[in-house]
Amino acid sequence: MDDQAIQLAEKIDRYLQGKMTEDEQKSFEYQLAQDANLRENVENTDIAREAVLQRGLRMEIKQIRERILQEDDEERPPSESIIPESDEPKGRAETKIRKLSFLQYSYRVAAGFSLLLVAFVAVQMVMVSSEDLYADNIALSDLSEVTRGGGETASQTALLDAYQQNNFSQATEIFRNLETPTSLELYFAAASYLQLNQYDEAINIYQKVLANNQLDNDNDFLKQESSYKLALTYIRTGEYNQALPILKDLDENYPYYDNLISSSFMLKLKLLQFKESLFN
């Protein structure tokens, strides 16, 4: 890690701990608003700090450091035999010894950090759940971008009114009585089923929205949102292999989802997928 990276890490840590001055904080938050990579670094650092705080990894770091120092002391030869008997000048021999000691110490530090990395991944696997990942991310994407637009049919008005009044059972009842529901009606019906925790029904309806090739230009976003909500619903039902390609496609092709589909979100999803593979 170079000096610039170390300084950035220290700055992020000071920001997360609230140790910046008011001017420093304003300047740093302006940088955050402009730099997506910096936001990602801050988010990942915050996750790591939370794991350390919650699971006592700081104590693990201290123990590893003490163990390394203790082993180094035990293996260091007596002072009178540090310099080998040779024709080399004393200074050159001491330099070789120091280089060897530093190399051994570096190996131990690397091993310690590897252990910490394994511990961090293990903690994340324990902490993450499909229910929490679904709940955290479904809340980030509301229906504000999917507008009614006016000129609705009577059935659309009734269904959307029921949804917006949080009468989700009534909304699904209206939907079931529709002979040929539009994509907008399908979308809000699926959203109603999500609110009622009827995930299989929601998945089925989102798939119908995506299969509808009659979407007009104004509703292209409706198709994208249906894909995103479908992926989240797959996460909720534990179908991670179904969710991953949908999220990757949205992240790569639609800038709107850059913030919603963060690297930490994808990391947690892959940890869930890995955890499932261990027990199946």
What does this 3D model show about the protein?
This protein is mainly alpha-helical. The protein has two domains: 3-127, no CATH class; 134-278, Serine Threonine Protein Phosphatase 5, Tetratricopeptide repeat. It is 74% helix and 0% strand. It contains 13 helices and no strands. The two termini are 39 Å apart.
CATH homologous superfamily name of the largest domain? Tetratricopeptide repeat domain
| Main β sheet profile | none
Structural class: mainly alpha
CATH architecture of the largest domain: Alpha Horseshoe
Q: How widely separated are the two ends? A: 39 Å
Domain unit count:
2
Mean pLDDT comes to 75
Count of β-strands:
0
Element pattern in H and E: HHHHHHHHHHHHH
Q: What is the level 1 CATH name of the largest domain? A: Mainly Alpha
Count, helices = 13
Return the CATH topology of the largest domain.
Serine Threonine Protein Phosphatase 5, Tetratricopeptide repeat
Poorly predicted spans: 80-84
Round the Cα radius of gyration to an integer and report it: 28 Å
Query: DSSP strand (E) fraction?
Result: under 5%
